[in-house]
Amino acid sequence: MAKTIQAIRGMNDCSPTESPLWQWVEAQVREVLNSYGYSEVRMPIVESTPLFARAIGEVTDVVSKEMYTFWDNDEQLTLRPEGTAGCVRAAIEHGWIYNNEQRLWYMGPMFRHERPQKGRYRQFHQAGVEVFGIANPEIDAELIILTARLWKKLGIDQHVSLQLNSIGSLAARANYRSALVAFLEKHQDLMSEEEKERLVKNPLRILDTKNQALQDVLDGAPKLLDYLDDESREHFGQLCALLDSVGIRYEINPKLVRGLDYYNKTVFEWITSALGAQGTVCGGGRYDGLVEQLGGHSAPGVGFAMGLERLVLLVQEVNRSIPVKNAVDIYVVYQGEGTALSAFQLAEKVRSTLPHLGTMLHCSGGNFKKQFKRADKSGASLALVIGESEVLNNQVVVKHLNGGVEQQTLDTEKVIDYIQSQF
Ligand code: HAM
C-alpha cells in the first residue's frame, strides 16, 4: 500500500460527526450578529506581508515568529494570522468608511505558527467584528453586550468571565512604558532571556508573563490605569457605567494589554477556566489610529474576534445538549426492473416540495435487506420503498424506521402530503 499523507500538525479536519455542532455554533453567531444589524464581509486569506507588519506591529509574537509567509515571484505574502488588518485594508481600499459608519463581521480560517496544544492550533477559525466611525463608548459596550448574548445562546455564559482594561492613548502608554521599564530593570535577575528581550522591544507584554516570580513582583509595578490621559479615563468610566447599568459583570485587569500593537483605550477578553491553558475565547478592543496608520482618512475603530475551536470545545465541555438535526430524514430504497427511474423521480419530487428535509437515495444497489440496513444506519425516520409492483401500480410503500407505526402503501400523488404530516 502507498504511504499515507497526513494533515499538517495543528491543522484539523472537521468530521461529519463534528460538523453539526460547528454549524450550530456558527448559526448562533450569525443570528446574534444579524440581530444587531451588522453586515458580513469576506476578505482574502492571503494578504501582502507588510500589511500585517504595519498593522499588528513588527515586535509582536504574531508578526515576529508566527506568520506563514512566502514569496510569490517578487511579492511577499502571508496567510492571514487575524482578520482586523485585512478588514481595515478592504475598508480603506473600497471606501466603506469614507464619511461613513460600518458595523461589519467576518468568519473564517486564520493561521499562526504556534506550538499546537488543546485550544491552540496553526489553522484556527475566528468570528470577528469590526466597527468603524464610532468613537463613543456606547459601541464598546454594545460589542460586549452582543458577545454576552451569544454566550447565553451557546449555553456557556456561566463558564466565561470578562476582563476589562484601558490602555489609553499612545502618549499615555509611552509614559507608562518608561515607568514600567524603570521598575522592571531592577528585577532583571528574575527574567528569562526572552523576557529581557521583551523589556527592550515590547515591555508591556511582560505584564502577562507566565513567570510566577515575575508576576509576584509585578503586583507592585506601576499601573497603566494611573497613567491614563483624561479622555481615555472618561471613556473607560462611561463604558464601565454602561456595563454596570445592564448588569454585565467584569473584572478590571490592569495587566491586560493584549498581544497586538494596534489597540488604544478599551481592551477586553472573555476567559474561561474550563479549557486549560488556552482560556481566552474572545478578545478585542479599540484601535482608533489604525485606519490612518494604514493610509486611510482617520476613523475610529473597535472590534473583537472569538476563537471558534475554543467555543466548540467549551460547548462540549459544559455538556450543553444542542438541537442537532440528523442529516437524513428520508431514505429511498428500490429494487427491480424499472424501479431506479421511479425512485429518482420520487426523491427529486420530495426535495423540490420539502427542501428542509434531507432525502437520500440509496444508489449503491443490493437487495432490500442490505438497503434497509443502510437506511437504518443513516438515522432516517422514514423509508420510501419502491419495488416492481409499486411501479406498476403507481404506489410507494412508506416504512417508519423507528418502529411503532404500521407501514403504509400510498398512491404516489399522496406521498408528499403524508410525509409532510410526519415531520
Ligand atoms: P486575538 O486575541 O489574537 O485577537 O485572537 C482572538 C481569538 O482568536 C482568541 O481569543 C482565541 O480565542 C482565538 N485564537 C487566537 N489564536 C488562536 C490559535 N492559535 N488557536 C485557536 N484559537 C486562537 C485578534 O485576532 C484580533 N484581530 C481581535 C480584534 C478584532 N481586535 C479588534 N478587532
TrEMBL record:
An example Gene Ontology molecular-function term: ATP binding
Sorted UniProt keywords: Aminoacyl-tRNA synthetase, ATP-binding, Cytoplasm, Ligase, Nucleotide-binding, Protein biosynthesis
Compartment(s) where it occurs, according to its Swiss-Prot or TrEMBL record: Cytoplasm
Catalytic activity: tRNA(His) + L-histidine + ATP = L-histidyl-tRNA(His) + AMP + diphosphate + H(+)
Residue intervals of the Aminoacyl-transfer RNA synthetases class-II family profile domain: 25-323
Enzyme class: ligase
Xref: Pfam families: HGTP_anticodon, tRNA-synt_His
Principal location listed in the UniProt entry: cytoplasm
GO biological process: histidyl-tRNA aminoacylation
One annotated Gene Ontology cellular component of this protein: cytoplasm
InterPro entries given in the database record: aa-tRNA-synth_II, aa-tRNA-synth_II/BPL/LPL, Anticodon-bd, Anticodon-bd_dom_sf, His-tRNA-ligase, HisRS-like_core, HisRS/HisZ, HisRS_anticodon
Domain of life: Bacteria
Protein biosynthesis recorded as keyword: yes
EC identifiers of the protein: 6.1.1.21
CDD domains documented for this protein: HisRS-like_core (cd00773), HisRS_anticodon (cd00859)
SUPFAM superfamilies the UniProt entry points to: Class II aaRS ABD-related, Class II aaRS and biotin synthetases
Residues that bind L-histidine: 82-84, 112, 126, 130, 258, 262-263
Subunit organization: Homodimer.
Family to which the UniProt record says this protein belongs: Belongs to the class-II aminoacyl-tRNA synthetase family.
This protein's name: Histidine--tRNA ligase
Record organism: Rodentibacter genomosp. 1
High-level lineage: Bacteria, Pseudomonadati, Pseudomonadota, Gammaproteobacteria, Pasteurellales
